[in-house]
Specification:
The protein is of the alpha+beta class and 280 residues long. It has 8 helices and 7 strands. A 5-stranded antiparallel sheet has the order 6-5-4-1-7. A two-stranded antiparallel sheet has the order 2-3. A hairpin with a 5-residue loop joins β5 and β6. The longest helix has 63 residues.
Amino acid sequence: MRLLRSPSEHRQFACAARLRCVRSSGFQTRWAHRLKVYVSACAFAFISLVGQLYAQGDADFAKANQAYAQGDFKEAISGYESLIRAGQWSANVFYDLGNAYFRAGDFGRAILNYERALALEPHHPEATANLQIARDEARALEMQPSRLDRYLQFESVNHYSITAAVAFWIAAFCLAALIFARRRSAAMVALLLVMLLVFTGAIFATWQLERGSKGSALAIVIGKDVQARLATADTANSVLALPPGSEVKILSTRGDWTYVALPNSLRGWIPAKNAERVRL
């Protein structure tokens, strides 16, 4: 059994303990300072890198725009596509890329990029107008949306997803407030119910658009003289001729062939290389 300390031993022990605390505190302070310096340096480096990337992106975008203005559409296409591959894209980049393809006479890829611009920004008036011009020029076929899809397409899937997330967290806050509050507020209950309705409606809209004619399975025909066929063979009977820029809905893939829903409500097989999804 350990003996109790005498008063002098207590004083010596207390002094030693305080010394250890001072040393420990100094050690922790030094490490905290070093950690703060390290975090600050990393944050500065990250901000500098992001700034350099955006500056480089702006320079590349300006260079591609200059090539387009000079009529060098091949160089403009290369510049816009390099931005997209680097992840520095927006509705305007896809719109400009669509214009470059249109000027180069590639209506399929022009329509594809106008559609991608509108998938990011549904209310892009220039992309909407040029998309219709390109469709008329190419005589491209369109998937016919349902009446419900037409009502829901005034906003994008991203907007509905954000709305659902915001409504969910507001509803969660209201529910927590009602659980822990001493008195339940009628206004808080009403807000909770409204947010639940908004959340449910946004989730339904997202689900409906994802499975609809403009959903994630939407693809654009980029090849020429494409025939949708009854089987995965070039000798199979043709179901429908698809001009460049025509819309199809990808259902499945088998090897080098893709099974698609067609604008005439039929289905058929097309070579996978002749169509690209709108959603990246």
